[in-house]
Amino acid sequence: MALFLFLVLVAVVLGIVGVVVEGLFYLLIIGIVVLLAAVAFIAVRWSRRTGRRPIR
């Protein structure tokens, strides 16, 4: 979960810098890609976790 939050924080910072600083629009694009990667990462972790339940 800490990795997910770190990736979201990095994405937000890159997005803000990409919007504010003129000529660094590519940072906004990189921020969006990092955010999508973080969401995909957490989705994969949650989907794997729901499938493994101990049999009692």
Shape: rod-shaped
The share of residues in extended strands comes to under 5%
Spatial separation of the terminal alpha carbons: 28 Å
Enumerate how many helices there are, as a single number: 2
**Low-confidence runs:** none
Helical proportion, percent range: over 70%
Count of DSSP strands = 0
**H/E element order:** HH
Report the structural category.
mainly alpha
* Rg measurement, Å: 16 Å
Oligomer: single chain
Domain unit count:
1
Look at the structure and give the mean pLDDT. Answer: 83
Largest sheet: none
Q: How would you describe the overall organization of this protein?
A:
This is DUF2207 domain-containing protein. Keywords: Membrane, Transmembrane, Transmembrane helix. The chain crosses the membrane at residues 25-46. There is one protein chain. The chain has 56 residues and is mainly α. The chain has one domain (2-49). It is 82% helix and 0% strand. It contains 2 helices and no strands. It has helices at 2-20, 25-51. The longest helix is centred in the C-terminal third of the chain and has 27 residues, at 25-51. The radius of gyration is 16 Å and the shape is rod-shaped. The model has no long low-confidence stretch (mean pLDDT 83).
What are the salient characteristics of this protein?
mainly alpha
List the helices and strands and how they pair.
Elements: H1 2-20, H2 25-51
Helix pairs in contact: 1-2
Summed up:
The protein has 56 residues and is mainly α. It has helices at 2-20, 25-51. It has one domain (2-49).
